[in-house]
Design a protein that fits this description.
Elements (H helix, E strand, L loop, with lengths): L10 E5 L4 H11 L3 E6 L5 H5 L2 E4 L5 H9 L3 E4 L6 H8 L9 H6 L2 H10 L7 E4 L2 H11 L3 E5 L10 E3 L8 H4 L5 E5 L3 E11 L4 E3 L3 E6 L2 E7 L5 H16 L5 E10 L4 E7 L9 H4 L4 H9 L13 E6 L4 H10 L3 E5 L4 H6 L4 E6 L3 H11 L19
Parallel strand pairs: 1-2, 1-4, 2-3
Antiparallel strand pairs: 5-8, 6-7, 6-8, 9-10, 9-11, 9-13, 11-12, 12-15, 13-14, 15-17, 16-17
Helix pairs in contact: 1-11, 3-4
Length: 390
């Protein structure tokens, strides 16, 4: 028997608290695989679904080791898990995703070096360590631009959008935290992304999607993306090149900006499952979570086929009354409510998402628009919306 394969009866460990873990736990248990979950909050849906749970801080090495030793392999379900934590787990059990991609993508300077090595088109940027650096670099970077910490995951309050010279002085306090990256904001028309499943011997691409954000939160995911064949082919070419040079096993996302003139810019790579992939629960013949499980478990990847056009829309607690009305009248809407405690629900931005099946993307979008729940006209797709925050 191949010891690198996770078989029914084996144990998969999942580390993380995001909603990505829910589909993964369900997929694993449906496959006869036992699931343990590690996180710092026991009151999450992922924890509730697990066969066993270990609650501890993400830096608690004793708890992490105990967890790892109970698992045949561990996967992280979010790119927010610190690479050092994953590296520690890998010393005590198998972590098929590895740490290389996570280490690169959590550090903007390493990420830029990776993109540069592949000669990929990215927004102009400069490394910033002092206020003087901002004043000296802004001429080549231009307005508007965004100042972001070199280390990702520190939150929106550590970032600054610079629209005019008078905004630069606001950066003084931020720079006390360490090294930053000043990046030009791209005036894009669409944000597109590809969800990729990768193993050492195979790669499968989910259909290209368009993502629309509002206030930095994902509002809609549209599949298939409404783009011409040349853009589609170029995105797949670039994504293939990235995949070929990335040491990683599992699901990852590559996001792009498409400008009105047809230029493509790389926005980011997420070396983990991404919220945009929820749309594939109904849009394709296999879900993102199921394909991720196949990749990390050492199984052959499912060839991906698109089943029908789908639009995913995300709703907040404030929109629940309108959602309940649609629940009663929409036969082609499939609702996913995130199970959270009352305290979590009060803090969380999103309460769930809806997958809308239709004959065409336009039909699905018209159905969403007709409800008035989301007021899609307010969705941000312009450079001055600082959508390059991540």
């Amino acid at each position: 028997m191949d010891n690198s394969v996770l078989n029914p009866g084996g144990t998969l460990g999942v580390i993380g608290n995001s909603t990505n873990g829910v589909g993964l736990v369900i997929a694993a248990r449906n496959a006869g695989i036992n699931v343990g979950v590690y996180g710092d909050n026991e009151n999450t849906e992922t924890m509730e679904l697990a066969d066993f749970r270990v609650v501890g801080a993400l830096k608690d090495q004793q708890q992490l080791q105990n967890f790892a030793e109970r698992c045949d392999m561990v996967t992280y379900e979010s790119e927010t898990i610190d690479a050092s934590v994953v590296s520690f787990l890998a010393a005590h059990t198998r972590v098929p995703q590895g740490t290389d991609a996570l280490e690169i993508m959590q550090d903007r300077s390493l990420e830029r070096a990776f993109f540069s090595q592949l000669n990929l088109n990215v927004a102009p940027s400069a490394t910033i360590v002092s206020l003087d650096d901002v004043y000296q670099s802004i001429g080549s970077i231009g307005y508007p631009s965004i100042l972001k910490p070199i280390q990702k995951g520190l939150g929106q309050n550590r970032q600054l959008v610079i629209k005019t010279q008078t905004d630069i002085v606001k950066a003084a306090d931020l720079l006390d935290w360490g090294t930053y990256l000043l990046e030009s904001l791209i005036p894009y028309q669409k944000e597109l992304s590809v969800i990729v499943a990768k193993t050492a011997t195979a790669t499968e691409f989910f259909p290209i999607v368009e993502n629309r954000y509002r206030d930095h939160d994902l509002l809609e995911t549209i599949v298939p993306a409404q783009i011409d064949a040349a853009v589609n082919d170029e995105i797949l070419r670039i994504t293939t090149e990235i995949s070929d040079n990335l040491t990683y096993t599992g699901i990852f996302e590559v996001a792009f900006f498409l400008t009105a003139s047809g230029n493509l810019y790389i926005k980011r790579i997420v070396p983990a499952m991404h919220q945009a992939g929820y749309v594939f629960d109904r849009a394709t013949n296999i879900s993102m979570a199921e394909q991720h499980l196949r990749a990390i478990a050492g199984l052959p990847l499912m060839p991906i086929k698109q089943v029908m056009p789908i639009v995913a829309v995300y709703f907040t607690s404030a929109q629940l009354n309108g959602i309940r009305t649609q629940w009663q009248i929409k036969p082609n809407w499939f609702f996913n409510f995130y199970h959270r405690t009352k305290l979590q629900a009060e803090k969380a931005v999103l309460a769930g998402h809806v997958l809308i099946e239709a004959d065409s993307v336009k039909d699905a979008l018209d159905q969403v628009d007709d409800t008035g729940i989301w007021r899609l006209g307010a969705a941000t797709n312009a450079a001055d919306s600082d959508a390059q925050r991540d």
